[in-house]
Amino acid sequence: MKMAMAAKPFNLFRWFSLVSLVIILAVAILLGSAATRFLMRESIDRDAMLSAQFIKSIADVEVIHGNFSPGLSLSEFLDKRVDGARLGVSHEQLVKSHEEFFDHIVRLPDVLLASVYAPDGMVIWSTRPELVGRHASSDSRLKEAIHSRSTVTVDRHGGERPVERYFLQAPKGLYLESFIPLQDSRGEVLSVIEIYKEPVDLIARMNRGLVLLWTATALGGAVIYLSLFWFVRHASRLVEDQQRKLVENETLALLGEMSTAVAHSLRNPLASIRSSAELALEVDPGPLHKNLGDIITQVDRMSKWVRELLMSARPLSGDQEPVDLTAALEETLAAYEPQIRHAGIEVDWQSRQVPKVVSHPVLLQQLLGSVLSNAIEAMPRGGRLAICLEPDVRRRLLTLTVSDTGSGMSPAMLEMAFKPFHTTKRGGLGVGLVLVRKIIERFGGDVSIDSRENAGTNVHLTFRATAGG
């Protein structure tokens, strides 16, 4: 029979990290690409507009400089096929205006090739004389400029078109092709200026702008992703911690019910066994005396387990109040003084005045007793027990550190330290540290342990200090 494989739990944090990264990358690339196209298009259109305004200004200046009749425009007689006499313009004026206007066109910065077209598509002038007389009536951009009566500009890249062999110099990369229509006083397009240019300064500024744009896009995407990543990781850890606590509470509740049932079931039989053993000791002090003493000792140990089980199972009771931690600690040390002396343990403890802590006297004594008992039992052949109090006035906390030089714990043992009924001590029940954490968290404190094998253990108990000190 095949066992059904358990479905893997859905890892929200991992999937969110991957999906959000893909989405943010896609959005950043789309926004960056859209901004890049907009930046390039606006820069190119701006450069073409300035070139068109400059050329039209030159044409207007030539009309004024040539003292032509009012209402005439240079576009009406750029075509050498036009009879100047019909327009009231002498041949000398035409030749001079042509030469000066075309000389200005040639001297435009970054020009690779310049040509002038008549409305029928014939080249009437060019920086390359061999192009004069050719027709380009099939050029869609030329037709668009004539019909729309506005400048038409496209961006090209070197090596794309055969016309590049006529350029004054080979383009290094991006260059612009602009068709600039010149109109007469009635608005009719009578000539079109075609200019190929490689605006080096504009291209350099565009490249700097693109680098800045993509850098900002990358940084913005990274900041958004890292912010979401931190937020979701924090939320995921909180959810995992809450789930862990929920499982632990459910486990403790179930174990508590079982422990209570077992403890109550054992209490009366144990009391009867102990009473019978004590009675037997009084009646028969003979050879069974030692065996009866062992029975009483083991019954007492089991009774102690029963008390610990009942205490770990039931809710903690007792209102919080200010408690003198130093006095409670000295009282607990005095209670364990025989065990400390018997094990040959050196105690390093200096009493000092510290603020009172928020706790309960009885529960605090139980907490301190459990911690000190563990430390003493970890050093059966002697050692050093160090106790230190460190107040944190700003945060209103008080940390008690209990350190021993015993055998210490491995990482695996340290991870299981607060698990119920987990113990490495012979005869231990495994509820001591569970109760310690339960008590200290009951009053808003915290407990942590750091330990290394054969190097000892440090237990850090953090209490809330009272406002009055």
TrEMBL record:
<keyword id="KW-0418">Kinase</keyword>
<keyword id="KW-1133">Transmembrane helix</keyword>
<keyword id="KW-0902">Two-component regulatory system</keyword>
<feature type="transmembrane region" description="Helical">
    <location>
        <begin position="12"/>
        <end position="39"/>
    </location>
</feature>
<dbReference type="InterPro" id="IPR003594">
    <property type="entry name" value="HATPase_dom"/>
</dbReference>
<feature type="domain" description="Histidine kinase">
    <location>
        <begin position="261"/>
        <end position="467"/>
    </location>
</feature>
<dbReference type="InterPro" id="IPR036890">
    <property type="entry name" value="HATPase_C_sf"/>
</dbReference>
<keyword id="KW-0808">Transferase</keyword>
<dbReference type="InterPro" id="IPR003661">
    <property type="entry name" value="HisK_dim/P_dom"/>
</dbReference>
<keyword id="KW-0597">Phosphoprotein</keyword>
<dbReference type="InterPro" id="IPR036097">
    <property type="entry name" value="HisK_dim/P_sf"/>
</dbReference>
<dbReference type="InterPro" id="IPR004358">
    <property type="entry name" value="Sig_transdc_His_kin-like_C"/>
</dbReference>
<keyword id="KW-0472">Membrane</keyword>
<feature type="transmembrane region" description="Helical">
    <location>
        <begin position="211"/>
        <end position="232"/>
    </location>
</feature>
<protein>
    <recommendedName>
        <fullName>histidine kinase</fullName>
        <ecNumber>2.7.13.3</ecNumber>
    </recommendedName>
</protein>
<keyword id="KW-0547">Nucleotide-binding</keyword>
<dbReference type="GO" id="GO:0005524">
    <property type="term" value="F:ATP binding"/>
</dbReference>
<keyword id="KW-0067">ATP-binding</keyword>
<dbReference type="InterPro" id="IPR005467">
    <property type="entry name" value="His_kinase_dom"/>
</dbReference>
<dbReference type="Pfam" id="PF02518">
    <property type="entry name" value="HATPase_c"/>
</dbReference>
<dbReference type="Pfam" id="PF00512">
    <property type="entry name" value="HisKA"/>
</dbReference>
<keyword id="KW-0812">Transmembrane</keyword>
